Amino acid sequence: MTLKRRVTRALGALTASALLIPAAAPAQAGVPVDGASGVGDAYWPLDGNGGIDVTAYRIDNRYDLAKKRLAGSTTVELTATEDLHSFSLDFLLRVSRVQVDGADASYTKTDGGHELRITPATPLVAGTSHDVEVTYADKPSRYSYAGESNWLASSSEVVAMNEPHMAPWWFPANDHPSDKAIVDVRTTVPHGREVISNGELKGRDVGKRTTTWHWRADEPMAPYLAFFAAGDFAVAKGKHDGLPWLVAVSQALPGADQRASMRLMRKTPRVISGLEKDLGAYPFSVVGGLTTSLDVGFALENQTRPTYPAVGGNATSLIVHELAHQWFGDDIAVQSWRDIWLNEGFATFMEWRWTEQHDGRSAAATLKDYYASMDADSSFWKVQVADPGADKVFDSAVYGRGSMALQALRNRVGDATFWKIIRTWIREQRGGNGSNEEFEATATRVSGVDLSGFFTAWLHTPSKPARTADNGLA
């Protein structure tokens, strides 16, 4: 079975009824309000924050590998969307100072320490832009949120990778995919250690005992897609059809694993070229990948540079999955976490498509066998793909049934119309967010076919779709 990304720990789903979330007070003309602690996501109500829109994060951290301690400051460039007396950022670490536009602001930690509530000296006016600088120092491994203990580190290596949450363990964020922002990362580590992050290496500042590595991605991203890794890495880079690529492999891996992992990472530019034939131009300015020696148990589609465990040199389908996410999940992020199949179902379908094009087994045959192998009473069919719930957000059905739905749609409307739907979706949603309702509307509009029954069967009903032509199964 192809290795697919899984979050292997319990997600500790939180519901709106289980949390008392401070809601923004009803706005009155000229009366500032307290921005809400959350954007209203049904699965994780504390994710994101009301009243602000972030433009950029300027992260400047120092990481002590031996002590597993992170210290630094992040400047959050944001615009107030309401008149604000106070607002929140999602952040777990111990804070020592907050400044808004250079003036000290008061702050508190609320909701189990996940919410950093900031009260500026002067209320923020709707439509105005501000720099919020947060200074901190702590050991990220001390913290958990929503049942997740996400800090992955040894005494010689660290990698900040996880989903649906990662940012609050290493920088203060408006932590929801609906608020994308530019991420600029400076990380200081001892001499002889490398730092890898999103985007392009902008430079290194070498001091007496430390080196500061500066990485920046040109395109906005959802906060959980930002990452950094520090340790000893072998690096390879180049250009493929004009696209710069950079890959890295942990030197803490045994020699054979290092060589196999580098062979796999070097497939990245070729896989991108293959995906472009179906999906159009790669959406970002650079690409790459990183293999860690840490026992992560999953891969993740960090924007421009996915991260992987050591899985050998032949796991091409895993590379295909995470690079397909650069279109489905990164460039087009989910509108809310219930829309997760738009990430995972699509990336898994592109694995099927890659096999169809390179190994000869058609995606239609894969659908047929998958359908036949799952009994009607299997728990696989009990998941409502378009709204799986927080406890099943990464259930195998989100991947498998999601990819089945896409191939069934291809069977239903025909190959040419199917790829027209996919390319229209990519073009119209580029750089933004997408919801299940929007995808269903796009498919119906482009195909000119009433697909309501089809989508009800595949995405909204917790039972096995009937084997009919209308369901793409005849």
From TrEMBL:
Sequence ranges assigned to domain Aminopeptidase N-like N-terminal in this UniProt record: 56-225
Needed cofactors: Zn(2+)
InterPro entries associated with the record: Aminopeptidase_N-like_N, Aminopeptidase_N-like_N_sf, Peptidase_M1, Peptidase_M1_aminopeptidases, Peptidase_M1_dom, Peptidase_M4/M1_CTD_sf
Enzyme Commission (EC) number: 3.4.11.2
Keywords: Aminopeptidase, Hydrolase, Metal-binding, Metalloprotease, Protease, Signal, Zinc
Residues in Peptidase M1 membrane alanine aminopeptidase domain copies: 314-458
Catalytically driven reaction(s): Release of an N-terminal amino acid, Xaa-|-Yaa- from a peptide, amide or arylamide. Xaa is preferably Ala, but may be most amino acids including Pro (slow action). When a terminal hydrophobic residue is followed by a prolyl residue, the two may be released as an intact Xaa-Pro dipeptide
GO MF, any single term: aminopeptidase activity
Top EC class of this enzyme: hydrolase
CDD domains, alphabetized: M1_APN_like
SUPFAM superfamilies assigned to the protein according to its UniProt record, in alphabetical order: Leukotriene A4 hydrolase N-terminal domain, Metalloproteases ('zincins'), catalytic domain
Regions annotated as coiled coil: none
Signal peptide residues on this chain, from the entry's feature table: 1-29
Family under the similarity heading: Belongs to the peptidase M1 family.
Protein name as it appears in the record: Aminopeptidase N
Source organism of this protein record: Nocardioides zeicaulis
Origin organism lineage: Bacteria, Bacillati, Actinomycetota, Actinomycetes, Propionibacteriales
